[in-house]
Amino acid sequence: MPYKCALNISELISLADVMDELQLGPNGGLVYCMDYLQQNMDWLKEKLEPLAREHYLIFDLPGQVELFMMHDSLRQIILEMNNKWDYRLTVVHLVDSHLCTEPSKYIAALLLSLSCMLHLEMPHVNVLSKIDIIEQYGELAFNLDFYTDVLDLGYLMEHFDANPYLSKKYRKLSAGLCELVEDFSLVSFTPLNIEDKESVQALVALVDKSNGYVFSGLHAHTKAGDYPPEFSYTATNTQSEYERVMDVQDKYC
Q1: Helix (H) or strand (E) holding 92
Q2: What is the largest CA-CA distance in the chain?
Q3: Residue 92, beta-bridge partner list
Q4: 219 closest CA partner among 228, 206, 210, 229
Q5: What CA–CA distances, in Å, run from 142 to 57, 177, 193?
Q6: According to the 3-state scheme, what is the secondary structure of 17-85?
Q7: Is the pTM of the predicted complex or chain greater than 0.85?
C-alpha cells in the first residue's frame, strides 16, 4: 500500500493468496475477494465500528470495472452498509481527464460512468482527475464545461465525420451511444487537481452535499449562525460550478 490505512481487507483475505491457490488472474481474484468479503460482513462491521464513531471514512477500491458494472457483490456490500448500518455513502468515480482529448475515449468514459451509476444506485460524483496535466495530451476540441456538463453530444459527431478512417457503422454506433447517455441525463463531471487544496475542498463539499453529511450536525445547533464548519463552507461558497470549471479551464486547459 502506498499509504497507511486504518483497515486493510488483506487482513481478511489476500489477493496474492487467492491468485496462487485458485490459479486466478488479478481480475478474477478481485471478484473472488469481493465475494468473500460479502460473505463476511460481520468482520467488516466489527472492524469499522470503532472508526465510524469519530472519523470520516474513505473506502479506496480497485479500479477493475467488473466490480462496479456487472458483478453484484460490491453493490450488495454498499447497500447493506447504507440501508442496515446507516452509513451515509457516496460513490466517487475517478476518470482520467485525458480521455476528453479523444471523442471515442470520452464516450467510453460516459458509458462507464453511466453504467456504474445505474448498477450501484447510490449518490454518485463523477470526477475528471489529473486535470492539471490534461494539456499534455493535446488541445480540447471544446470548452471544459462541454465535458463536465455533458452538453449536446451531437457536436462530437462532427469529429467522427471528419475522420475518413472511421466506418459508417462506427459513426452510427457512436451517435446511438451519445443519444443513450443524453436520454438518461444523469452523467456530469467535476474537475480535480489533487495538488490544489481548493479543488479538493470543492470536491469534498460536493460529496458532503450528495450524501447529506453537510447537514448532519444541524440538529445540535440552535442559534442563528451557529452551524458546523462543513455546512458553513458550503453555504458561504457562492461560486457556481460553472464558474469553478471556467477557472479550472483558465489554469490548465
Answers
A1: strand 91-96
A2: 66
A3: 125
A4: 228
A5: 36, 19, 20
A6: HHHHHHCCCHHHHHHHHHHHHHHCHHHHHHHHHHHHCCCCCCCCCCCCCHHHHCCCHHHHHHHHHHHCC
A7: yes
| 216, pLDDT greater than 70 | no
Average pLDDT over residues 194-217: 86
Cα separation, 183 vs 202, whole angstroms: 28
User: Which three cell numbers mark 59?
Assistant: 473506502
Phi, psi of 24 (to 5 degrees): -105, 155
In what order do the strands lie in the sheet containing 91-96? 91-96, 124-129, 190-191
Q: What is the DSSP letter of 122?
A: S
Q: Which residue in this structure is represented by grid cell 462530437?
A: 156
Distance CA 115, CA 113 (A): 5
Residue that wins the pLDDT comparison between 116 and 1: 116
Q: Determine the number of helices (DSSP H) and then strands (DSSP E) in the chain.
A: 12, 3
AA letter at 36? Y
Q: With contact defined as beta carbons under 8 Å apart, do 63 and 103 qualify?
A: no
User: What CA–CA distance (Å, rounded) separates 191 from 146?
Assistant: 12
Contacts of 177 (CB under 8 A, 6+ apart): 107, 110, 111
Q: What is the pLDDT of residues 145-178, one digit of tens each?
A: 999 999 899 999 888 888 888 899 999 999 999 9
